[in-house]
Amino acid sequence: MAAIDDAPRPSVAWSPATVAQVDLRLLDDPIAVPVRTSFGSMHSRPGLIVRLTDADGVQGFGEAWCNFPAGGARYKATLIEQYVRPALQGQRFAAPAEVQARLHALFAILRLQCADYGAMAQLIAAVDQAAWDLFGKRAGQPLWQLLGGRREVPVYASGIGPRHVAETVRAQHAAGHRGFKIKLGFDDATDHASLAAARDALPRGATLMVDINQGWTVEQAKAWLPRLAEAGIAWCEEPLRADAAWDDWRLLAALAPSLPIAGGENLLGEQRFVDAVERGAVRVLQPDLGKWGGISENLQLARRLQGTPASICPHWLAGGIGLMASLQFKAAIGGAGMVEMDANPNRQRSEAFAEPLVVRDGVVSLPDTPGVVPPLAPWLLEPQAWATPSPEHAPARTAPSA
Fold first, then answer.
1. Considering the domain boundaries, does residue 397 fall inside one?
2. What pTM value is reported for the model?
3. Which entry of 25, 295, 357, 375 is 20 to 30 Å from 327 by CA?
């Protein structure tokens, strides 16, 4: 199947909006059990939510990726307060992508000066989500409908392991999931045990994927991939570092042709995704809409990949707002692929909305509410929790003239 449906997409007549206020909310929720990966662990669940309010009082929400490093969310919040807020407030935009373009101009030199591509890409992605939510609400339709998509989106349970693998698979199956992704890349004994536990617990007809989190060398991957292919694994995610040579990725792809190689959450820039596909390195693309591109650039990427054999499976392991952006994006582009849903406890996901998301037989049916994000739960909207400009900050920076 193709990366994106071939059906023509409707042209949206946007209602221009003036940004009156840019707010943010920082979260850092304690957790009983750390979320482990091959490169490190999360000991809490951080969150950074951006809210755009227009002159008519319409609000749009977006979420930045901020799982690592510890304290990264606060740094990005400072960037929003010092740079994004003064650049956007009082400005009029004709379409959501214009907001992102404004921020790219704002940070074009600064990110070179700071050698800080990641944090700036992540906050731009979050603001872009919020812009699409705001403009979609002004248009009175959900994003999936505005862009001619379908409301049903396949999903899978992720973040499983290395502890309690079998129990988590069974619990997530009971919660409606039919696809499961376990974490490997720790050591051979742990990885063999996780894989065996997952396969033993896997219900008939279910799908199993593995995520290495960049944890293997080429030699380790060469030893593991034939075993994974023989086990019927649906894809192997990030077996190598994201900056490894494409020749190394292509070598692994050729080693076990029946086992698709997945990656993309740690790629930055449209051309890197295109290169991954064109060089035969990756068959399952996993852009993270809170890390790079938001909705605007990922829609452009999907259009560019139209007609290729790659599938687009948005990556997301954080709160509900970014998850909803990922679901709406996937519903809008169609094509093969699933959206990731974190199986670990996180109130920012499970308690984000007034009406919780429901998974039925591996599918989420998106709501009819306008925009990207449906009505949020009251606890997320508490006025005192939303940051306003801090008087001790230095004078706000402004964007360069267009």
1. no
2. 0.94
3. 25
pLDDT tens per residue, range 58-72: 999 999 999 999 999
pLDDT of residue 58: 98
- For 210-241, b where at least 16 C-beta lie within 10 A, e where not — what string? bbbbbbbebebbeebbeebbeeebbbbbbbbe
pLDDT band at 4 (very low <50, low <70, confident <90, very high): low
| Token pair for 283 | 């068959």
By DSSP bridging, strand 92-93 and strand 17-37 are antiparallel
How many Å apart are CA 102 and CA 402, to the nearest integer?
A: 8
CA distance 131 to 375: 16
- Of 95, 158, 88, 91, nearest to 123 by C-alpha is 88
Same domain, 56 and 148: no
What is the total count of domains within the chain?
Answer: 2
CA distance 164 to 197: 9
Specify the pLDDT at position 7. 59
Whether 355 and 306 share a structural domain: yes
Three-state DSSP at 85 gives helix
Residue 49 and residue 183 in one domain? no
> Is position 332 within any domain?
yes
Q: What is the per-residue burial (b if ≥16 Cβ within 10 Å, else e) of 288-304? A: bbbbbbbbbbbbebbeb
116 and 239, same domain (yes or no): no
Strands, E assignment, 271-375: 284-285, 311-312, 339-342, 359-360, 363-365
pLDDT greater than 60 at residue 396: no
Structure tokens at 91: 């400005």
Q: Which of 132-141, 282-291, 302-311 has the lowest mean pLDDT?
A: 302-311
pLDDT attached to residue 299: 97
Residue 237 β-bridge partners: 211, 262
Amino acid occupying residue 175: A
Same domain, 126 and 180: no
Q: Which two tokens stand for residue 356?
A: 């919780």
What are the tokens at 55?
């002159």
Structural domain for 152, as ranges: 144-378
Angle between helices 165-174 and 188-201 (to 10 degrees): 30
- For 320-345, write each residue's pLDDT tens digit: 999 999 999 999 999 999 999 999 99
Do 78 and 171 lie in one domain? The reply is no
